[in-house]
């Protein structure tokens, strides 16, 4: 069946009269853009599932390391949905779920699937972090605990403030510089700008990073600033005592005690930086984006299928 095109994919709807909460967020975003002027890619893309019903596209899941993982997430969603339907609809959804599940048979590949009046797409999302003189941008005072992205409406024409519009303009034509990635990947990025020329901002994510002589290494993260703090406390209390990377020495009893005290500080403070055993950690804000075009959100790219299967 024919599906509707995405309206406003090439539109940025800037409004100056924001509600009081959004106005404060937009002002803080403007201040951060001045302090952290450089936008840098935040690691490899994430993959997820988007569903189209009518003209609306919504994110069903996000956070898979590879398209194959997103297809398994789609199979799980289809089975959960099928359990609430009648016999006819249940049969169609379960048949598609079985095609996508590697534990049932030879898993289907591809990025586009349909069942009934709905279309499903395996989509890619890129993360970016702002950098300034003191490193990556930390979580903002106005950031909230969003939780996992579920049923997020991908609406490129939704009103945005001046700072949000400026960020989207900044990201529209951002591609890897020549020589920094294989040419095949760079050409795919250029094709993405042509086919999916718009950018939509998703709710931000948050990473815990460690300062290693001004090289910032990701350690863990979460869906909100407090979620990331909880993950850092877990890292201090559970991961460090229980897992020693190959080629490194285990923490001494004194160091473990200091890490435990650091975990207590993380629990007690709504801060963005913590120090333990001479190591410096920061809760960093990650801007999550998805490209859009007339046919909807950008699907996974051919080279994405080469990503290692996390299983």
UniProtKB/TrEMBL annotation:
InterPro entries from the UniProt entry: DUF5954 (IPR045998)
Pfam family, one: DUF5954
Region of interest (Disordered), ranges: 292-311
Name used for this protein in its record: DUF5954 family protein
Organism of provenance: Actinomadura fibrosa
């Amino acid at each position: 069946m024919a599906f509707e095109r995405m309206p406003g994919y090439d539109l940025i709807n800037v409004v100056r009269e924001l509600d009081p909460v959004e106005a404060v967020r937009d002002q803080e975003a403007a201040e951060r853009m001045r302090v952290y002027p450089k936008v840098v890619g935040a690691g490899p893309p994430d993959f997820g599932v988007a569903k189209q019903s009518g003209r609306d596209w919504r994110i069903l899941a996000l956070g898979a390391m590879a398209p194959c993982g997103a297809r398994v997430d789609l199979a799980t969603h289809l089975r959960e949905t099928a359990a609430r339907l009648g016999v006819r609809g249940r049969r169609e959804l379960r048949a598609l779920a079985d095609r996508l599940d590697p534990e049932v048979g030879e898993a289907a590949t591809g990025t586009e699937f349909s069942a009934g009046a709905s279309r499903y797409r395996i989509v890619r999302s890129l993360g970016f972090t702002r950098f300034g003189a003191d490193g990556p941008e930390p979580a903002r005072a106005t950031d909230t605990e969003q939780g996992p992205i579920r049923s997020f409406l991908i609406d490129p024409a939704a009103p945005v403030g001046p700072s949000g519009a400026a960020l989207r303009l900044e990201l529209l034509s951002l591609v890897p510089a020549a020589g920094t990635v294989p040419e095949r990947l760079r050409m795919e990025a250029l094709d993405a700008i042509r086919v999916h020329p718009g950018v939509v901002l998703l709710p931000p994510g948050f990473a815990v990073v460690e300062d290693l002589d001004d090289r910032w290494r990701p350690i863990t993260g979460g869906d909100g600033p407090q979620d990331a703090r909880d993950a850092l406390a877990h890292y201090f209390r559970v991961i460090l005592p229980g897992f020693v990377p190959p080629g490194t020495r285990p923490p001494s009893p004194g160091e473990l005690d200091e890490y435990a005290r650091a975990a207590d500080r993380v629990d007690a403070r709504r801060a963005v930086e913590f120090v333990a055993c001479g190591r410096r950690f920061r809760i960093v804000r990650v801007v999550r984006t998805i490209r859009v075009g007339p046919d909807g959100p950008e699907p996974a790219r051919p080279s994405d299928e080469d990503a290692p299967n996390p299983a």
